[in-house]
Amino acid sequence: MERTFNALGPIYREKVGTLSSVNILLPADISEMFKSEGLHPRRMTLEPWATHREIRNHRKGVFLKNGEEWRSDRLQLNKEVMMSAAVRRFLPLLDDVAKDFCRLLEDRVEREGRGAEEAKRSLTIDPSPDLFRFALEASCHVLYGERIGLFSSSPSLESQKFIWAVERMLTTTPPLLYLPPRLLLRVGAPLWTEHATAWDHIFSHAEARIQRAYQRLSSSQGSGTVAAGGLYGGVLGQLIEKGKLSLDLIKANITELMAGGVDTTAVPLQFGLFELGRNPEVQDRVRQQVKRSWAQAGGDPQKALQGAPLLKGTIKEILRLYPVGITVQRYPVHDIVLQNYHIPAGTMVQACLYPMGRSSQVFEEPLNFDPGRWSVSREEGQRGEVMGFRSLAFGFGARQCVGRRIAENEMQLLLMHFLCL
């Protein structure tokens, strides 16, 4: 995409397989795209995922829905994962997991570091598998209100299979976007079989977790424990208690949140550690602010995060350079004009995040890792109508990522505790 934009300019039309789109990267054009999204914004349907739900008779969550059905379900989910009151409820759960994970790595470094010193060699640790375990442990704690024990010396085979399944599902999704899934199903294509098997593992793991949590919550409610102690039963417990969504819809959405909450935080965290490691002067500035804020907050994680804007800027900068999802799509509900081109209603328009994040037309010195570029004072100095459309890793508007608040706080808390070590 980056090379194509460099060759053709800030807008071009593309057809790959069965998909046709208009691709854009300038914030002014992206602003127009979102202005035309309508009351029920539509994004590209991931047909491999939708086909799996249909052939297995699973309900679809909000990620795969459109129209009024999407809006109705999304409004209920927002109350438990997006609103400020919900964040205050689940933030302590994320904080507990982040602190435990930092202690785990600190102990590991001390233990293996002694051996490295004796052997006169440097210590190298690959954090990738550990970060995936952290992401799953944190997600499950928020969603189910309980820990699943991934930080133990021998994590369960069930959880390891889940992580494998998420990796395989994500790996097999891109090539399937350009092929008809039902044809692949009919001919028994290995690619489709691998994809469907991965989703089956994901749903099996989620079903087992949901059933256990449901039984625990039912038992607590029957004995009056939850009401008396005011205990937070996770997002699942809140949705069951409110009763606004059917149990099947709750299962569908919890499964999507769990499957979508592993790589989307683990991978950016890897890049974050990489960038902070190779930019020590940036690391020092962020660390000083984080430590000062943590000391002033008196152990309150929410206050500590509010007092460390450079930490939030660090997450934005990571996602600018290394977006997990490389495009955000919308289908305009009316005709629009972009760069003097007429775009008919119903055309898929894609805001291309990776090339935008590295474009000198949008960012000064785009390849520099600079969390300070997101500070209020610097943005005010450049303030224009479309400045807000430069950071879109979680989308925008009513159809932004439903797990955004969980992911943002999860990443910020982990980096905060790393920097405070």
UniProtKB/TrEMBL annotation:
Its main location: mitochondrion. Heme binds at C401. It is found in: Mitochondrion membrane. Keywords: Heme, Iron, Membrane, Metal-binding, Mitochondrion, Monooxygenase, Oxidoreductase, Steroidogenesis, Transit peptide. One of its GO terms (molecular function) is heme binding. GO terms for cellular component: mitochondrial inner membrane. GO terms for biological process: C21-steroid hormone biosynthetic process; cellular response to peptide hormone stimulus; cholesterol metabolic process; cortisol metabolic process; glucocorticoid biosynthetic process. Its EC number is 1.14.15.4. Its cofactor is heme. This is steroid 11beta-monooxygenase.
